[in-house]
Design a protein that fits this description.
Elements: H1 14-27, H2 31-46, E1 54-63, H3 74-77, E2 82-90, E3 93-103, H4 104-116, E4 120-128
Length: 129
C-alpha cells in the first residue's frame, strides 16, 4: 500500500459537515484525520464481505426518528441468518440488536439494506470460516 495521500472531494449534508467542524475544533484535530478514521471504520465493517464465507456478527441499528426498523422487514426477510433479535427504546431512539450467522452474501445484503435505510447501522464481524 502506498504511503502517499490522495485528494478527492466529498459532499456532506450541511448539518453533518457542521458537526464534523465542531468536533475538529473542540478536539483540535485535523478534519482529514477524522474522515480517514471514519472510512477505516466503515471499511472494517464491510470489507470481509468481499469473499463468500460463513460468518457470525452483530448488526446494530439505531433509529433516531423512533420509527421501528422492523417495519422495514429486516427481521422477516433475513430470518434465515438472524439467530437473535432484540428491540429496545432508549428515550426517543429505537435500538435493535441482531445476532447473525450464515452466508456472508446474505448478511452483506442485510447490512447494505440497513445502511440504505433511515437507520444508523454498525456491523461487527465476530468470526468467519
Amino acid at each position: 500500500m502506498s504511503s502517499g495521500k490522495r485528494r478527492f472531494g466529498v459532499a456532506l449534508p450541511s448539518e453533518l459537515a457542521d458537526e464534523l467542524d465542531s468536533i475538529v475544533k473542540a478536539f483540535n484535530i485535523d478534519r482529514s484525520a477524522v474522515v480517514e478514521q471514519a472510512v477505516r471504520g466503515f471499511l472494517a465493517e464491510v470489507i470481509h464481505h468481499r469473499k463468500p464465507h460463513k460468518c457470525t456478527g452483530v448488526l446494530l441499528l439505531f433509529n433516531r426518528e423512533h420509527e421501528e426498523t422492523s417495519q422495514l422487514n429486516f427481521v422477516n426477510e433475513y430470518k434465515d441468518v438472524i439467530i437473535s433479535y432484540t428491540h429496545h427504546h432508549i428515550g426517543a431512539q429505537c435500538v435493535e440488536v441482531l445476532i447473525v450467522c450464515g452466508d456472508s452474501e446474505i448478511i452483506a445484503g442485510l447490512h447494505m439494506k440497513a445502511l440504505k435505510s433511515k437507520c444508523d447501522c454498525r456491523y461487527i464481524p465476530l468470526g468467519h470460516s
